[in-house]
Amino acid sequence: MIPIIHLLAFCGGFIIMSFELLGGRILAPYFGSGVYVWGSIITIFMLSLAIGYLLGGRLSVKNPSPRKFAGIFAISAIFLYPMILYAQPVMEFIFQQIEDPRYGSLTAAAFLFMVPTIILGMISPYSVRLLVDNVEESGKVAGALYFTSTLGSAIGTLVTSFYLVLWFEVDTIITILTLILLSIGLIAWFFAPGQLGASKNSATNPSPGA
Amino acid sequence: MSLLKPSSMHRPADRRFAQPLKSFWALLTALLVTSVAPSVLAAGKTVIHEERSLYTSILVQQQRDLLCLNFTLKRADSSQSCMDVKNPQRMVFAYTRMAMSGLLFNPNPKHIMIVGLGGGTLPVALTEIFPEAKIQTVEIDPAVIGVAKRFFNFTETANNKIIQQDARVFAKRAALQKQQFDLIILDAFNGDYIPEHLMTQEFLTEVQNLLTPDGVLVANTFASSDLYAHESNTYKEVFGNFINLKGRDSGNRVVIVPQGALNPEQRTPISKDLLLAQAGALTPILSPYAVPIKRLAKDILKTINAPADWDESKRPLTDQYSPANLLRSQ
Q1: Structural domains in chain B?
Q2: The complex's ipTM?
C-alpha cells in the first residue's frame, strides 16, 4: 500500500509544479513575463495550496477512504482541463478591466489556477491520513510523504521546463497532466483499497475484502 | 566627465546596509566579482557601474573611448550597447546601423515605437534626426532606464518617451487605444536573448496590427543556432516575405518588413533605383552616425528574392510553443 500512496503523492507534487510553471507561459501573452507575473503565480499557488491543505485535512477526518482519495484526483482533473478553453477569454476580459499588469496577472492567476490547485493541495494531508497507523509513526509518515510529494514537485518543474515545453504545446501538456491525474485516480480507485485494507482496517475489520 | 571618476564607481548599494550586514554583503559581492574579474582586468576595462536589477545584472564599463552596457556578468564581453564617448553619435554596433536601414522604406516616420531601451542608441539618434516624431520606447527594467539616463545621455522629452512596461502588455494596450506607428523596432534583449513571449507569432501579429500601411517593422535578431530557422519561419508565417539582412561580419540578422501591415501581394515592390535614391538622400543625415546606408541598401537589394537560407520545416514559435531559449542552445 505504501508505494501506491507514495506514487500518488509524487504525481500530485509533479502536477502542481508542472502546472505552476505553465502558468507563466499562459499569462505571458497578456501580462508579460516580468517578475510581478511570477509573483502573482507563486502567491496564488501558495494561497491555494494552503487552502487545499486545510480542506484536505478536514476531509480526511470523516471516513477516510482510498476511493475518496481517488475522487480528489478525478475532480482536480475535471477542473484542470477546461483551462484550455477558458484561459484566453478570461485573460482577455481581465486585461480590459484591469490596467495594472500586476493586479491583472494576480486576478487572472486567481481565476485560472486557484480551483485546480486547491484540490491538488488536498492530496498531501489526505495521503498522510491514509498512511498513518499510530501517533508514534505519524511524524515519520508525514515526513516521508512530504519527501515524495516534494520530490515529485522538483522533478515536475525540471521535466516541464527542460523538456515538455520543448516537445509539446502548452495545451498538450495540460492534457497530459489531466490524463495523468485521471489514470492515477483510477489506480487509487482500483488498487489502493485492497492494499490499504490490509493494514488500515486491521483493527476494526480483519477481513481485507475482495 | 565626472561620471568616469573612479571615486564614484563603487557600488552604491553598500551604503544601504548596516554595519553587520556589510561584511556579508562585501563577501557576496566579492565572490561574484571575483568570477568576472580576470576577463575585466585582462581586457583593460574599467567598471563604471554595477547593479543587479530584477531582470538582469547590469554592468557599465569603459574601455578606452567605449562606454558599454552589459547585461550579464558571466559573459562580460558581449555588450548590449556601446557609446563612443568622444563621438557619441557614432553607432558602434553593426546591428544598430543595420536597424537604421528601415528608414530606406519610410524616410520620415512620425510615430515610432521601440521595444528595448538598452543604452538608448536608437531612440537618441532617431530623436536627433526626427525632432518632431513621437517616439515611444518600451522598457521593462527601471534599472536600465536609470542607467541609460545616467550614463548614456538619454533624456526624456515630450516627444521621446520611455514607457516602463512589458512590451507584450504595451502592444495589447496600444491596440486597444488604436495607436499606429510608421516605424517599429524590436530590440528587446535580456542577458540571453529575446524574451520568449516577444518572439511568437501572436506577438508579431499584435505588432503588425500597430503598423500604418506604410509602416516598417525592423527586428534585431541573431543568425545563429536552430532558433534562427524557427524565428525566420515565425516571421514568414506572419508577414510573408521579409528582408533578411545579415551582418557582414557579425552574427546579427535584422528582419525588415516594409509595409508590414499589408498582405505581401498588396505591397509596393521594392525598386532598385528608388532604394538607391533613398540611400543617397539619407547619406548626409546618417553619416554622423556612421551608418553606411548606401552599402546597406546594396546589401538589402541582394537579399531580395534570395532563397531562404534556413530550414523551412522548422516549427514557427507560438504562445503555445516558444521554447526559444532552449532552441538557442540546440
Answers
A1: 2-84 (no CATH), 94-328 (3.40.50.150)
A2: 0.81
